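Technical note accompanying the year-one report. For the benefit of new consortium partners, we illustrate the data format agreed upon in the data management plan: each record pairs a sequence with a structure-token string. No post-processing was applied to the example shown here.
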Amino acid sequence: MMFEKPTYLIQFGYSGQTLVRRAMDDDYADGVILSPSDYEYGDTKSLARDVNRKDGVVLFDPQYYIPRTERPASNSYPYFKQSGGDNFETVVVTNNKNRRELCEQIWEVQHQIDVDAYIAPARFLDTFSDTKLTQWELLTKTFVEVVEDKDPGAEIFASLPVAGASINDDEQRSKLLDIVTKIDVTGFYVSVEYPRYRQNPIFGFEEVKAYLDLLKNLRYNWYDVVLGHSDQIAHLGFGLGINAFGSGHYKNTRAFDTDRWIPQDSGGGSAGIYWYYSEPLMNEMQVEQDMQALYSSNSFSLEKLRLKNPTSPFARELFVREPEEPEWTYKNDSWDHYIWSCHQIAKEYKGLTLEERINRTQENLRNAAEIYSEIEEAIGPRENIQSETYEDWMAAFDSTLTDRDVNVISRVMP
């Protein structure tokens, strides 16, 4: 087991180098999941060295989900330059010799970055057809063989980049689990794609339950799990005995979205709307509109949105005068505050037994639902928050764990 306690990894993305270094320097992140999409190979190796010097965890997501991706940064990595973009052909992953060469190149990149565990490449599984699952299995097994040859005993995580619509089907989810749980790896790096209107946060009872059932069954089989491209749903993951999640400072690195890797996508982020992430609410509020409206309502205390003990060092200004006045800068305070808040989620579950984690998760969900109910009473529903989310999460979480599950997962936990 690699992750023996709750861990937060910054999901690396556009404009992330400074944020990562600052978080590691000031101890509000446990490590990073590096990306080939936004920074060139040399910059990635440099950042990895800095994180390693701070005793942080370094992982590298090969992001071979849609190999035809064309981005200048990706092409600085040997495996993308040779076997990605316009050079990609299906034979790269179906021919034994070509597949081995691809895996050796991806291993070499991660070895040079000095990762703490290797992440296997995988193409995006939008469906669980026999052909796609066989290709996933062959690519994963080949990468495992390469690592075992070149770095015996190293930790390996298999990638599971899957479509939410496919795991929603019980039969298809079981088919996937039957294949992937035959692989001898440390664990799984799981990223699930949902339609954009459902992404952040995930909502819908069936969607959330299917996601949790997938995670539960991986944990049930003694695999370590990293929740990639996740968000505040990490609370539910910790309640299932999972110990690591990755989340970043853009919505597209908090929710897995393959549109980020299609060739015409130039990358980068949005700007102009400033968000305050509220851990008690388990959601975000727009500073100028939502928080200002709450401040002006005189019927809701903004302090209810603020995590106490400790309080975020990046959010003080929002609570000493009208939220519009501090002019929170999108590239600084709001991003750092979000990362700091994610780290607090992990810290909150450290040292707890599984039973205590479950109780904490349920308590946090109830509190968040109550806060949002008060917000609706004060200023009405918020456009970016689905009130059903809290009900969906509570119902899905409660229906996922049986007493037998709790007993088994308790034995799996370190």
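Partners are asked to follow this layout when depositing records. Confidence is low (pLDDT under 50) at residues 265-269.
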